[in-house]
Design a protein that fits this description.
This protein is an alpha+beta fold and 92 residues long. It has three helices and three strands. The protein has one domain (2-82): Gcn5-related N-acetyltransferase (GNAT) (Aminopeptidase), CATH 3.40.630.30. Helix content is 43%, strand content 24%.
Amino acid sequence: MITVKPAEPGDVEAIVRLAEERDRFYAETEIEPPEVRIEQVGEALFGATPYAMTILAWDDGDLIGFASRERRRQTAHAARIRDRDPPRLQPS
């Protein structure tokens, strides 16, 4: 059964392994060592100021996919919406 859930700090190594598989599939020639990537991904997702949010797709305990979104864009968009005046409805 496939399950989709938000990433948690304990998922970082699985994310890095799957990203490495993706990079090798697309013939990346320069892949950071796993220790470096684990630190980078952990900081980006769960550091003092998280940079991105990620959801994971699991198939019976195996990570089979993930999707990430940068948080800054979402925050900027939310701020723009909040700054606008609410729409005023006119009676018909």
